[in-house]
Amino acid sequence: MIAIIDYQMGNLRSVQKGFEKVGHEAIITGDAAKLEKAEKVVLPGVGAFRDAMTELTRRELIEPIHNAINAGKPFLGICLGLQLLFDKSYEDGEYDGLGVIPGEVVRFQVPNGYKVPHMGWNQVSIVNRPPILDGIEPNTHFYFVHSYYVAPKDERVVALTADYPDPFCAMTWRDNIFATQFHPEKSQSEGLKILKNFAALS
Q: CA spacing 20 to 30 A to 83: which of 37, 94, 100, 168?
């Protein structure tokens, strides 16, 4: 069973429908007991970092997230769900994250002619190839919507980069943890490949 964490932030139904399109059932839940029983866990997210951490804390979901990761379950973060895995964010202040992956979340500093948020389709470069990238070709385009990006302390966790205009981390991978800055559920057939590959992990 795939469990999508419900903390009232993110396009939960879109992620669920993405898994359904590739033939896998996924439940949306904020119940710690159901997260514990799940074989795979997804942390989606749209919105502000501070609000997300507040909701995860209020709903007592931080410990279940750590438990799932520490148990070795395949774990997928999407967009804000990627950023929350890091130590801290500087979005509208300085706020602690889940502290799973060392590093920070910082705002784009872009030259004239570039807009923030970074929004739309952008191609990626493959740095490392985790199993959820099976069938994904170099320079594939994915859909992004974000004003902040992650800066990992250990560059070995970077799986994909994209340029805006400088390279930034578009996906991280460490052991059982996979996380994308882009939205696979909004990235048409190539994004659905990623969801299908994640669902097929053992």
A: 37
Strands 141-146 vs 2-5: parallel, antiparallel or unpaired:
unpaired
Neighbours of 176 (CB within 10 A): 18
Would the CA dihedral through 169, 11, 42, 8 be positive or negative?
A: positive
Of the candidates 60, 91, 183, 190, the residue annotated as catalytic is: 183
Catalytic status, residue 94: no
183 belongs to the catalytic site: yes
The question of whether 24 is a catalytic residue gets the answer: no
Using one digit for the tens of pLDDT, what is the confidence trace for 3-56?
999 998 878 999 999 999 999 999 999 999 999 999 999 999 999 999 999 999
- Residue of 91, 118, 169, 185 marked active site: 185
Say which of 20, 24, 79, 146 is annotated catalytic.
Answer: 79
